[in-house]
Write a structure and sequence with these properties.
Layout: E1 11-12, E2 16-18, E3 21-22, H1 44-52, H2 54-60, E4 94-95, E5 107-114, E6 125-131
Antiparallel strand pairs: 1-4, 2-3, 5-6
Length: 132
């Protein structure tokens, strides 16, 4: 459902091929819920820096569901949207090359993260403020 919103008619997520289809090299980033309250998860800059380090990936990334602890998920299997550098723009979002004719340009003005639900979910809430 999240990739079917009309927002994604104007923006492309470079880590996905389409609705519910991720690129083969992007398995997403699942952070271990037990560490979401750490100060590292409180800002995108700190989280990005931490996940760029092998030790940080080892400490903060969760493994694939149903895998044993020996799966070693930090060894290049996860790519976080905020560390994706292949496409200019914040969080990897960019305008489609051919937007809908009646659409006005939209740009991401501000991105905020919320870790308030860190104790009850394994997701990090991301809010985008768009300039329309």
């Amino acid at each position: 459902l999240q990739q079917q919103h009309k927002l994604f008619c104007r923006f492309q997520d470079p880590c996905r091929m389409g609705t519910r289809q991720e690129q083969p090299w992007a398995l997403g980033t699942a952070l271990r819920s037990s560490v979401l309250h750490h100060s590292v998860a409180s800002s995108p800059e700190m989280l990005r820096w931490t996940l760029e380090q092998e030790k940080g990936r080892h400490l903060y990334l969760a493994g694939p569901p149903g895998r044993s602890r020996r799966a070693k998920p930090w060894r290049g299997q996860h790519l976080d949207y905020i560390t994706y550098c292949g496409v200019p723009g914040w969080l990897g979002l960019r305008r489609w090359d051919d937007p809908q004719p009646d659409s006005r340009p939209q740009e991401v003005e501000q991105v905020t993260f919320s870790t308030a639900l860190g104790g009850v979910t394994d997701h990090l809430v991301v809010n985008l403020q768009l300039r329309v």
